[in-house]
Amino acid sequence: MNPLNSFFTALYTMPLEQAALWSLLGNVVMFALALLAGEALVRRYHDKPNSPAPEPISRQEITLAVVCVLLNTLVAIVGIVLWRAEIIQLRPDGGLLATTVDVLVLIALMDFGMYVFHRMAHHPLLYPIIHLTHHLYENPRPLTLFVLNPFEVLGFGALLIVVIWLSHASQVAIVIYLAFNLIFGLVGHLGVEPAPEAWLKLPVIRTISTSTFHAGHHHDKAHNFGFYTVIWDRLFGTLSPEYTTDFERANGG
Ligand SMILES: [Zn+2]
Ligand SMILES: [Zn+2]
Q1: Ligand that comes closest to the CA of residue 225
Q2: Model pTM?
Q3: Phi, psi (5° rounding) for residue 77?
Q4: C-alpha separations of 232 from 18, 85, 122 in Å
Q5: Are 200 and 234 in contact (CB under 8 A)?
Q6: Could you report the per-residue pLDDT of 148-205, keeping only the tens digit for each?
Q7: How far is the CA of 185 from the centre of ligand 1 (A)?
């Protein structure tokens, strides 16, 4: 059995308090890695900005980010409890092809689900309650990925639990998906554009979102609601007409 599967087997049987501590550790490590990688990327691509420099970090941003990490831990614990109660049933590892399919299904379902939720979060009745907090920060930095209203964190967590419950994705697929989600969330909040100039000219590749795509949503709340792809914005007519120009400008064009 590979180390990841051994870890999941232990997670299934260990006392719940211990599983909760592992969840906290996992979330803190993801948070720290995101901030470190984010800082390195911001320095590496500082000559390709897609947003003005953010304001100095406020105490409120730090508090919200800490609350976000704690609530993500809570979501993980709820997921573990549901899995141990066999309400969530995960497929056993089925090799490379099966894992790839599982990851792609998770990405596709979450990409669509988050687009729908994000559009709903901009409805005037919901916006002040769940989403305005994230939009207080128009010029994102890596930390902004975690600067969310607590209801929004729980909403994302609930969506993810439902998607895992529906898809029965394997353990390794879930871990790969979580890494993928962290990378995309981080890239969207760098304030700089790591993608090369040719990105929007390449078939298929150009449907994958870029840093400038999500930065565009922070600057113009009526467009770019998607996360991993621009497919849903294209389909529902919410892709910013400025997207290509913004991307080329970030790339020095
Ligand atoms: Zn954002
Ligand atoms: Zn928004």
Answers
A1: 2
A2: 0.94
A3: -65, -45
A4: 40, 35, 16
A5: no
A6: 999 999 999 999 999 999 999 999 999 999 999 999 999 999 999 999 999 999 999 9
A7: 8
